[in-house]
Amino acid sequence: MSRIVYVNGQYLPEAEATVSIFDRGFLMADAVYEVTSVLDGKLLDFAGHQARLARSLNELEMQRPCSDDELLAIHRELVTRNDLTDGMIYLQVTRGNPGDRDFAFPDASVKPTLVLFTQSKPGMADAPAAKTGIKVISIDDLRWGRRDIKTVQLLYPSLGKMMAKKAGADDAWLVEDGHVTEGTSNNAYIVKGGRIITRNLSHDILHGITRAAVLRFAAEAQMEVEERPFTIAEAKAADEAFYTSASGFVTPVVEIDGAAIGTGKPGAVAKRLREIYLDESRKTAI
Amino acid sequence: MSRIVYVNGQYLPEAEATVSIFDRGFLMADAVYEVTSVLDGKLLDFAGHQARLARSLNELEMQRPCSDDELLAIHRELVTRNDLTDGMIYLQVTRGNPGDRDFAFPDASVKPTLVLFTQSKPGMADAPAAKTGIKVISIDDLRWGRRDIKTVQLLYPSLGKMMAKKAGADDAWLVEDGHVTEGTSNNAYIVKGGRIITRNLSHDILHGITRAAVLRFAAEAQMEVEERPFTIAEAKAADEAFYTSASGFVTPVVEIDGAAIGTGKPGAVAKRLREIYLDESRKTAI
User: Fold this and answer.
1) CATH numbers and ranges of domains, chain A
2) What is the pLDDT of residue A1?
3) β-strands B10-13, B4-7 pairing
4) Residue A150 annotated in active site
5) DSSP 3-state assignment of A68?
6) The pTM is what?
């Protein structure tokens, strides 16, 4: 089935969905994005993703393409037109098409480019990785210095995924100055003696929407949370490990650089947080 | 006049030149580029740019879109169709359009996307900046760790140009660990006691094609060259400063962070190197 996607006010068959070669998203990665999960046809944490989008746009002095209400309407229209039950909606905003290439920003008359499309993932909430856990390798974090802005500068995360694949693993955890920053497209956690440890927010990591929700639920469930950088050695000696992301929810990590973590099986904390996250997110899905 | 541009085998009016929204160049900055200057309708240092393109593609395990001969033919066809006398030809290769978004590389059946377009700059060899020099500010270098690969991850260089503009300057020199790496889209040099000082090649800077040529010409002209990192304090105390790039050739820098360099006027070394570079490059232009 051909998807119907959204490009600058139009709903189009995916094969016809294009942008100008002069779009700044294409020529200089001058673009930000969000991925919102859909379960049972409803959007998870939509407000959180829209708030982060607004922050990314603001940090880069980029225009908002439309109102939150309009964005919600586009998301819902795409769910309907594509009969989406479980999956994701990808949204990208670029600084637009000035008609030529120039490092300087175009003037305000150049409108941002807005692109959205769906990705169907039937049974996403019961992904096999949630039961088996995933394996990660550690690699140097070579990304730029503002990972808190969700830009499309994803070449290094993409290279990292390929390094993991080649090493027989599923993902890579990025290490800078001896400490884990995050996964290639997710936030990283370890659990030791009942304490959940994850890196504190800064310019060094993405301010995960799922991270914020999971830490809130953990606190409500009286779990201890420590926000600070941790090392790969600490991770290897941890009782368990996991990651969070919009599409992976809470997913156990059972091996780092070939070393089993804890029992080498998904841990109880990750399992419980995944259940709470899915339950609570479904309740507030719109 | 509407330009004729090249996209994946087709010559098209610029307004009709598009790529899929699923192109990896658009979704994840998985793309590299080159800019070749044209003077009197001829390509400057074409072989150098093609060699660097091949290196960028190789470093990222990206397929070559076509042979060097075919690329040369496309460049020449664009010069002819657009009646280009002086200016640049921009070339971009992406990992192609796999039809969906995925961090993992697509399989080899997905062909790279190839885009080229011209930019006319009449009188480029006599640009006013060559006579007046430019002003730069220094800013932190927040780019990713592989600046030797010429990727389209140009958001930070673009932000840097805007910071310079706001400060009343023309460009920014990027500083990492106390030393200048390079300009936002060019290599940086200072001259002290007759010695030309520029940062040594590594993953930290672009391996400039113009840089290589200029250093070769400098050596042939018995000028002393020292390839090592330098500080902003050294630059402020230098006799002169300049930058090199494919489209700026050799351009004097007369002010850094508000402080005049040397006399505050373009220096003799930059002037001489610009003349030699233009003379020699015209001789070998094709």
Assistant:
1) 4-122 (3.30.470.10), 128-284 (3.20.10.10)
2) 62
3) antiparallel
4) yes
5) helix
6) 0.97
